[in-house]
């Protein structure tokens, strides 16, 4: 296994050093085409992939990466809510939307998370409609979410066993584009959740829609929401790492697995919090905060496990096609310029250090 590069950064975010020099990854013509569908993998390949996924998830320190993603996710949470509430404030439904959001949090996030967030969310709902608040919320949400995308990219590079080689001027526009797409999709998912019940009826009246349309919407929105979440994961899984994947997969096994794990983990964690835990006695008024942060951590663990599974499925495809991917995935990097410059600087430092050593403390 490749160890983490010692850079002084958080160990979980330090990518593994590739065994091949940058831009010189081994590419071997496969005797057969790589399987495209997971159903094309043999039982032996599936067993290898699942075992490797669990092992690499621990080796890549994905739980630590998930903790850093929680930090950036919290930073982006409230600016995003400002934008959503400001938009709904145009039709005078920001207060109803706030109550809907709190109801969703009570149903999804375990413990006293809703009580902890109730005052901030109601204050956000009371902010001015549209205009400056909407623009400010969107700008802050995009800026905060870009930190999440950058951190996820570092984690994805570690999962795909590759260093970041794209230069700053090439990497930043890509990350901002990913961030913009993600923010729009997350806002859409939030609206799908919020526009239900009384809010949906008010929106339907404002748009001149009948009650039948609103009733249908309350049913149809759930599969639409699932599709939006799958699309968010597909975009992040494909665009964030430096590894150039064979193709964009609208629906991946990893994304579906992440959603299932999140649903099961949320139910299990909620049962634990309400039945066995003593967060209230231990943390007092901060119990809701702790529970909410733990739930976000679990959610990001699920996302990273799904990414790890997709990476190992790609390894399984390559191995079954005869490509030597036992030690590292054979995927071309999107960029190597940054790595090449880093190698040049390192070689200069090594040469200077050698001259100092040979001089034995004496100037030339």
TrEMBL record:
The membrane-topology field of this record reads: Multi-pass membrane protein
Q: Does the keyword Ribosomal protein apply?
A: no
GO cellular component: a single term: plasma membrane
Query: What protein name applies here?
Result: Ribonuclease BN
Q: Which domain of life is it from?
A: Bacteria
The segments labelled Disordered in the record are 1-39, 332-364
Keyword annotations? Cell membrane, Membrane, Transmembrane, Transmembrane helix
Q: Does the keyword Transferase apply?
A: no
Q: Which organism is it from?
A: Microbacterium testaceum (Aureobacterium testaceum)
Pfam families with a match to the protein in the record? Virul_fac_BrkB
Q: Where in the cell is it found?
A: Cell membrane
What taxonomic lineage is listed for the species of origin? Bacteria, Bacillati, Actinomycetota, Actinomycetes, Micrococcales
**InterPro entries named among the record's database cross-references:** Virul_fac_BrkB
Q: Where are the transmembrane segments?
A: 69-91, 129-149, 176-199, 219-238, 250-273, 285-307
């Amino acid at each position: 296994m490749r160890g983490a590069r010692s850079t002084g950064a958080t160990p979980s975010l330090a990518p593994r050093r590739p065994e091949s020099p940058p831009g010189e990854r081994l590419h071997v013509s496969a005797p057969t085409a790589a399987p495209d569908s997971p159903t094309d993998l043999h039982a032996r390949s599936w067993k290898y992939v699942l075992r490797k996924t669990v092992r690499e998830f621990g080796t890549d320190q994905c739980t630590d990466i998930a903790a850093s993603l929680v930090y950036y996710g919290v930073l982006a949470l409230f600016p995003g809510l400002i934008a959503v509430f400001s938009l709904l404030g145009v039709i005078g439904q920001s207060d109803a939307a706030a109550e809907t959001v709190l109801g969703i949090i009570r149903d999804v996030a375990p413990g006293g998370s809703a009580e902890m967030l109730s005052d901030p969310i109601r204050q956000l709902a009371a902010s001015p409609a549209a205009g400056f608040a909407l623009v400010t919320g969107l700008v802050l949400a995009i800026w905060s979410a870009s930190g999440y995308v950058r951190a996820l990219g570092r984690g994805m590079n570690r999962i795909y066993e590759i260093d970041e080689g794209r230069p700053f001027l090439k990497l930043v526009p890509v990350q901002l584009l990913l961030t913009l797409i993600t923010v729009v999709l997350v806002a859409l998912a939030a609206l799908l959740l919020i526009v239900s019940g009384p809010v949906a009826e008010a929106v339907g009246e404002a748009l001149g829609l009948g009650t039948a349309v609103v009733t249908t919407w309350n049913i149809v929105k759930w599969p639409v929401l699932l599709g939006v979440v799958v699309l968010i994961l597909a975009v992040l899984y494909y665009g964030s790492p430096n590894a150039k994947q064979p193709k964009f997969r609208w629906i991946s096994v990893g994304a579906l697995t992440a959603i299932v794990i999140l649903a099961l983990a949320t139910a299990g964690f909620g049962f634990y919090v309400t039945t066995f835990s003593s967060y209230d006695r231990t943390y007092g008024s901060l119990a809701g905060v702790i529970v909410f942060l733990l739930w976000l951590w679990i959610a990001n663990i699920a996302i990273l496990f799904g990414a790890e599974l997709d990476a190992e499925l790609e390894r399984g495809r390559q191995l079954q096609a005869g490509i030597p991917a036992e030690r590292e995935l054979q995927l071309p990097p999107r960029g190597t310029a940054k790595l090449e410059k880093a190698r040049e600087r390192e070689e200069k430092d090594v040469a200077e250090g050698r001259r100092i050593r040979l001089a034995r403390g004496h100037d030339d």
